[in-house]
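the two lines:
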Amino acid sequence: MKTFRTRMAWFYGLTLAAGAVGLAAVAAAPLLMARGSRAAAFLYAVFAPLCHQQPERCFSLAGFPLAVCARCTGIYLGAFLGLIARPFLRPLTDLRPPCAAAFLAVSLPIAVDAAANLFGIWRSPGALRFATGLIWGPILPFYFLAGLGSLFASGAEKK
Amino acid sequence: MNGRKPSLLAPALIAGAAGGVLSGIPFVNCLCCLWMIGAGILAAYLMAKDAPAPPTAGDGALVGAFTGVVAAGAVSLMSIPLAALNAVFFRRFLERMAEYVQEMPAGWEQWFTRGVGPFSFFWFFIGLVINAAVFAALAALGGIIGMSLFARRTPPPGAPLPPQPGSHV
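prediction for all of em together
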């Protein structure tokens, strides 16, 4: 029987791999576009339901916009960095989610900036959009692993 | 404790339909993946509100994942009547990209003509599967966040107590 620790290590590894694939796909879309590959169309289409993909709000690579906007890039990169940092900050077997105050604190910049842009109060540059995503993203894997562990691993023998 | 699990169906259907509709309407979908995370949070709130016992983070992940699947279904269904409109938006996206970048690859105008052709069940199914997987992951994340925010630490008054360690159920 797999121990709780082993299961959580598997979940962590799979989540890390999925995150790396997702980030690679974001960067691969413009690189494939620059090479004239039709696979670029598929990658842009995959991310289309998740992001507005407005070229002027996206960072560029090889002369073409990334598959997601600057804010989403920040969220994805931040989440991936948070995922890497997760086992160094807290044991994988610790399934407690972050406290509500921490979530609200990191959510405040992205909420204010997104709302202000949505209602036309101001227009943020790409770097600021990216920064608000990068601040918010790292807390997400702490929730995701807590939920995965609670759902799939809590029945395992805890050692 | 009667072991009743909180209901997943109603919160997932309500939040999934709302999130799917908002994600599927052009212009309104400018909040990107936040709609799906928000739908997961809404589902967790609806579930925790009426739960007979305090739900767990796993319950939040489960209701969030169902919410994402429902939302993917809603988005895919909406894409059928909105196919022509989406094709226009996608072409406009490419034309704006063509204005934005130095040089587009040769023949890019023909890359996306599939979207304006007759309805294809194959591409509809592929889109549904991809959307369901991605939306389920994002909404599950929202469900876990929502459960951490809204789940009661103690059962509501009058609710049966959870089983104690070593007790027989």
